[in-house]
Every structure is written in C-alpha cells, then in structure tokens.
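Hi! If you just cloned this repository, the fastest way to understand the data is to look at a raw example. We've pasted two of them here, unedited. The first protein comes first, obviously.
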Amino acid sequence: MDDDWLPYDLKQRRSRRQNSQRKQVKGWLPTLVFGSLGVLSIGVGMMEMGAGQMTELACVRSSTKRLACSRTVTTGLTREATIEIKNIEKSEMQQVGRKFRNAYRVMLVTTDGEVPLTEDFKSDKRESLEHIEQLNEFIQNDSEPKLQLQVDDRAQSNLFGLMFILTGILWVLMAIVVQIAVNRKSVLTQKVY
C-alpha cells in the first residue's frame, strides 16, 4: 500500500505502530521453551519427592522356633503394602551393574524362593552388608524373639527431587528474565523512533 498521500507525521505514527507490533512477537519462543522446561522440571521433582520408600521388616519367632516376617513398604504416593514372608533360611546380597557402577539389595532366601527386602537397588554396599549381617544373626540366634529392620531412602529421593525443583525454578526465572529483556528492548526501540 502506498503512503505517499499521507502527511509525514501520520507516516511516522503508522510506521512506529507496525514496528512495535512486529517486535512484540519476538521473545515468545525462548520464554515458552524456558518456562515449559521449568514447569516440567518442577513436576518431575515433585513426583520424585513423593517416590521415596521406607521398607520395614518385622520378624517374630514363634514358640516352635519358626520365623514369621512381614515386609511393609510405605511411599509418599501410595499406601502401605504389606506381604507376609515365612520360612526364611538366610539373607544374601543381590548385585547388578558393571565393574564400577554396582547396585545392591538384600534378598531373603526362603524355602519357597527369594524375596527382595527392598524393591529398589541402592549404591551403598556397606548398608546392605550391615542389614544382611543383622538378619543372619537373628536367623541363627534362636534366643532372640523378634527383629525390627528399617530401610529408608526417602531422604535421598527428597534431595534428588529438590534438585529438580530448584532447576525448574531457575528455568522459570530465566523465562521471566528473557521476557523482561525482550519487552525492555522493544520499549527502548520504540522511544528511538
């Protein structure tokens, strides 16, 4: 469209309006990307914080020297899940991984097969060995009437979730800073005209 017939003042106003409309569109993509990454990271962190587990093994020795144990798993996202474990003969370690990246968990060996003490593997071999020693001592010592054992990984899960949440907050702040910078730049360029 030809603007030759408009006075000079109206041409400048029209040009400024068109430039400001074009410049307001800039900056939405980085803001959208950073903001989405932030919200996603915060959501993953919240899920991770609720996924930590506490496993409790309670064993009682009957008058006939038989062991009756119950394993209760509690998480932040689900209710307690309890299973009965009978006829435990011993406990041993299960290991997965490669040469330098191993993970461990305690297995309860029964007459019917093996039952894991925890659903997840942990990287702390020392803690698993302590639980195995404690369980095997109880199984072999007939004079001990009961055993209470807890494995709690909620602190580790909460720390990992908190790292995701803090990263998400940084992404959201970055989105806000980008939007402010784009808006400030568009305001400054409008003043120049």
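Ok, and the second one:
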Amino acid sequence: MRADNFIFFLTASGFFVGLIFALLADLEALWLVYACIAITFIFYMIALAASGFFIRFVDSKTAYSIEVEYYETQLDKARSQIEKREAYIRDSTRFIRNLEAEIARAKSKETS
C-alpha cells in the first residue's frame, strides 16, 4: 500500500471513529463536530508518523525485490498449459459438432 493511500485510509477511519465516539458521548451538534475533527486530526497525525517512519527506516529496494526470471518462467509454463487446454477444448468441441452432425444426418435418413 502506498503511503498516500495509507494516510487517506487512516484519516477516513479516524473520521468515522470520531463520529461514533461523538454519538456515543451524546454530545451537542457543535461539540460533535469538534470531537469529530479532533479525532480525525489525531488519526491523521498517527498516519503521518507511521508512514514517515516506514519510509525512513524501510529500504524499498530490499523489501520489494522481485525475482523477474522466476516469475517469467512460471508465466511461460502457465501460458503453455493454457494453450494446451485451449487446443483440447477446441478439439473436443470440433468432435462434438461432428458427432451432432452425424446424429442429425442419421435421424434425417431414418425419417426419409
């Protein structure tokens, strides 16, 4: 998850948590808005601190290294398997169509 998305998510969560706490405390409308803004701000600051620490202390190159060769070979294997299955399905449908055509011809000969 990107840092921006994490901040947006936690801020929106803070808004709803603030709204729930304000409703449970049975506050007046103005105090409900103040409580909601305060809790949303607290969640926003927590999100900024957490994403800042993550960006500062986690090296993205080591954390997100992708083994390209491994995945390419796996994708090539999957592609060849899919091609084999498609060929099998194509042959099966061709066989079924031919069989249905023969049955239809046999029925038409019987009725003639």
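That's it. A detail worth noticing about the second one: Residues 3 and 54 are 9 Å apart (CA to CA).
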